[in-house]
């Protein structure tokens, strides 16, 4: 028994729907004991879609033909991932007939070179699945060196700035523009257009208070209604950071204190004398013992009876470690009754 899928014919790699056919032979020898079957593929099982715009939907189409004198029943195709969606137009192929099999690629789901597979299998219990492949290159409208920019640590009272080189696909006739949102007043500016190359400038104003900051810059090409767009995520820290060994600490019965290691991360150079460490609860005493290792200390929290009684009732109490030169660090004290 033979199942035939005709070989691919690709006329243009930029077409949104590419008809492809390949020849598939499914040899289904009959076994009296099991009624099983083996599946064999001839001569090819991969379709290359070439290079196409990443923001454009693509469809690779197969034609599945049954050249035997028996009915072949197929299961629903199983994709390797959510980025491609094989659609089988029917699950039963009569002798001498054929059915279409499309593979849909959603706009923007793939970027750069790719090779994805899906499995096609008959209802014969012993039949091996046929693995078919779709490959190609989804070329984005906007090429970014990175989509996540880590600003690191910035000294209090000093501004921060950097820039990024961005390329736009040659067929994009519109201009590159940026929409910026952040919690510290981040500003961006797009300059230049030489051979579809731009420079994106980032500028954050000076802040006196230590804080963790973040921003999102949405880049788009005018005239594409947002189809040609991408985002750059940014985050950083002004001042230092308090990094406790663990954010959840367990306190058991008859225990009134707990100790843990604390690291302080600062912009370079670090302060000669770190700011004093405090905690946002009057019923907790904090002891800070510096370690021989730079930026490390051993912290001990001592709890009074009022705090301990409250902890037994509420089971968990959130606290916040604070220092004038660092962003606060949340910790949770959890009561373990046994």
Q: Return the structural class.
A: mainly beta
CATH topology of the largest domain: Immunoglobulin-like
- Write down the CATH class of the largest domain: Mainly Beta
The whole-number mean of residue pLDDT values reads 82
Anisotropy-based shape? flat
Annotated CATH architecture of the largest domain: Sandwich
Helix content: under 10%
Most strands sheet:
8 strands, mixed
How far apart are the termini?
68 Å
Into how many domains do the coordinates divide? 3
* Cα Rg: 31 Å
Individual helix count? 1
Q: Indicate the low-confidence ranges by residue numbers.
A: 1-43
Number of strands: 27
| Helix-strand string | EEEEEEEEEEEEEEEEEEEEEEEEEHEE
CATH superfamily of the largest domain: Immunoglobulins
Features:
Immunoglobulin-like, mainly beta, five-stranded mixed β-sheet, 338 residues, single chain, 3 domains
How would you portray this structure in words?
By secondary structure, this protein is an all-beta fold. Mean pLDDT is 82; it is low at 1-43. It is flat, with a radius of gyration of 31 Å. Helices cover 3% and strands 53% of the residues. The chain has three domains: 3-139, Immunoglobulins (Immunoglobulin-like); 142-238, Immunoglobulins (Immunoglobulin-like, Sandwich), CATH 2.60.40; 240-336, Immunoglobulins (Immunoglobulin-like, Sandwich). It has one helix at residues 305-314; strands at residues 3-5, 17-19, 46-53, 58-66, 72-73, 78-79, 84-88, 92-93, 98-105, 112-120, 130-139, 142-143, 148-154, 160-168, 176-182, 187-194, 197-204, 211-221, 229-238, 240-244, 248-252, 257-265, 278-279, 284-290, 296-303, 316-323, 326-336. The termini are far apart.
